[in-house]
Amino acid sequence: MSDATQTYSPTAASRAQLRREKLLPIINRAGGWLDAFGLAFTVPLMRMAAGENISEQLGELRRLLLIPLVGIVLFIGAWAALAPQVQTSLGAIPGPAQVWSAAGDLMVSHNRMRDKAAAFYERQEERNAKLVEAGKADRVKWRTFTGQPTYIDQIMTSLITVALGFGIATLIAVPLGIASGLSRTVNGAINPLVQIFKPVSPLAWLPIVTMIVSAAYANPLEWLPKALLISAITVTLCSLWPTLINTALGVASVDKDLMNVGRVLQLPTRKTITKLVLPSALPLIFTGLRLSLGVGWMVLIAAEMLAQNPGLGKFVWDEFQNGSSQSLARIMVAVFTIGLIGFMLDRVMFALQRAFTFSANR
């Protein structure tokens, strides 16, 4: 009896195998999402913990983590060595240490301004409360803190602006792209305009947009300043083309047999688009959206510089005009901020693509 029990009891190796078989599908599913957010290097670590071949996973870890880290370290080393050799009218190009220090100073300034705002609103509440107690409620006034926008405030303004411009571009480009992909007539009418306007620089659009918005938007809303709207529309005009082109291409590439089935079933146009066209075209549509968001984020900086919208572009321009000893370091902080935010926006769009498209999840 004891021999039989010993024969059928799972060994340590078989238990490890069962555990690996349970964990690997979970790790593989999670790996796609981790890759979408730029965390693919964690997958080999999880596979090693699950009992996968260590040498093979170390090779993956080297490819996904070690080599990129070496590239970053070499870049920082070259930057630190070469930056002091380049002299400008404002002094030497700041190295990594000076840029890091400038970033810290910007955060300190942000926290100091937030403390001032909190103290302002606290004093205002105390003053108004005393007026109410004294029976002078008619003298109560509520004012908004008017301190200068901090670096974090300017980042948020830029994100709001690009979101508005990108949203408008998407609402225009996707329907036009679908119509262009479904109809040769519409495509023939739109294509010349796309080819003419697609290469136009935001610097050319900005004066036209400024004049039109100034004339048509004479009484701006408090939550939508004129400068923000000008920047957002400029982003729209420059970023809608990748989405329009890729949407039209995706719709035109839908399997003809699938479209013929829709005709045989006499599906109405709305159902044909929602049930047949969009599911097949979504991968290319999302590719266009990712490209449009990247273009919009790049265009935004130039638009904010000239429109004087209080975002990252205006921050860079103000520092350039300021000409202080810290200006170059702060401009470089903005450069890295713009790059990191652009990377994160692309990762978010890629994650949405994985969530809503079949091809990305195969």
Automatic annotation (TrEMBL):
SUPFAM superfamilies noted in UniProt: MetI-like
Gene3D superfamilies according to UniProt: MetI-like (1.10.3720.10)
Transport among keywords: yes
InterPro entries in UniProt: MetI-like, MetI-like_sf
GO cellular component, one term: plasma membrane
Keyword terms: Cell membrane, Membrane, Transmembrane, Transmembrane helix, Transport
Single Gene Ontology BP annotation: transmembrane transport
Domain ABC transmembrane type-1 positions: 155-349
Localization annotation: Cell membrane
Lipid bilayer topology: Multi-pass membrane protein
Membrane-spanning segments: 61-82, 155-179, 200-218, 230-255, 276-307, 327-345
Principal cellular location given in the protein's record: membrane
Domain of life, per lineage: Bacteria
Family statement drawn from the similarity comment of this UniProt entry: Belongs to the binding-protein-dependent transport system permease family.
Entry-linked PANTHER family: ALKANE SULFONATE ABC TRANSPORTER-RELATED, MEMBRANE SUBUNIT (PTHR30151), NITRATE IMPORT PERMEASE PROTEIN NRTB (PTHR30151:SF7)
The protein's name in its UniProt record: Nitrate ABC transporter permease
Source organism (scientific name): Notoacmeibacter marinus
